[in-house]
Amino acid sequence: VFLFPAFIVSDELPCDDGTDNVVRLFNSPGGNNLVVSLNNVAMTTYDANLRTACNTTGGDITFPGSSTLNKGTMTISIAVDARAVRVELSMRKDDNTVGWVCVNGKAQNGIVEDDYCTFDLCNNQVIFAFQICDALTKPGTYKFDDNSMYLFFNPIPYENRNLMTGMWKISVEGLIEDQSIFAWTFLGSDDSGWVHITKTMVQ
């Protein structure tokens, strides 16, 4: 059972909530005019023990863990059948022996299977985005500054845990059949383009 993030700072790493544990989300190139678009969105990251989670590039996305979307806006121009939204990942690791793992939902280099690189937004076992799924059915502009939304992350499947820990460049595209409805890129609080992912243990 997940709880909403508590603002507890880790003793292991100086990590101020809302300053050091930030991951930013942008529309990917071509994403500004899609059904779902973002403006100046940021989320704060927490580990499995509800402590702020940071790395050298900003927020640290941890599995298991959680994130809070608490800055910026999300605009939905028409109602979407959230149950039909499929997410395709593009992910490149800062490791020359790994490189691209997923490109547009297709596995690369034989490291993972295709089903690792694509998933149903509102029906999967790793990332829970219930509030976003609900919002997709109701057109309008959602102001995260006024009403935060939460994401919850289950543990990374065992066989992929060591692979996933590290620095990544991450973008996602949401589709219904072959129609793109959103395209987002994740960035840390710096401008390097890298976001850190960590596996954690619940204490």
TrEMBL record:
| Highest taxon in the source lineage | Eukaryota
Specify the protein name.
P/Homo B domain-containing protein
Provide the taxonomic classification: Eukaryota, Metazoa, Ecdysozoa, Nematoda, Chromadorea
